[in-house]
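[step 3/7] fold_predict: job queued, chain A
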Amino acid sequence: MIKTNKKMDKVLRKHYFFRKNEMSTIISEIVDNTKKIYDFYLYDTNDSLSEEKVSLTKISNSFKYKFEYEIWHNEINLPKNKFVPQHLIELVTLLQTKLNEKFNENFIIYVSINDYFDVRFTKKRENESLWLVDDLNKYESPVLICI
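[step 4/7] structure written:
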């Protein structure tokens, strides 16, 4: 299910040139560089994360829920010139599908737009809420969630 606020709806209606090969590259890079460490799914661009380097004590002292750590860690900023807004739904849907397939889990993808496309993701957990409030129109930036 895709949820957007009114500002994102306006962005998605704009017409831009579509760069499909770049979208495929971005999705592959994110999925290929995401790994499971303990019960966290973390995007690791330089293959530096491991169980030895991730402190569960620090995480539990800093974050109440697992999704909060994943959202904080899994922030991917895509330059606006590398991607086209009207294909965000395709991007998040494909990214979600590929992550779901790789880890046999369900993921939630968040996108907001400011000076760049801010893409974040987390595993969907039964005992945890969504990161954002239900009324997405409360946010100043365009927002999209793929649940």
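[step 5/7] annotate
Residues 2-146 form one domain.
The longest helix spans residues 88-103.
exit 0
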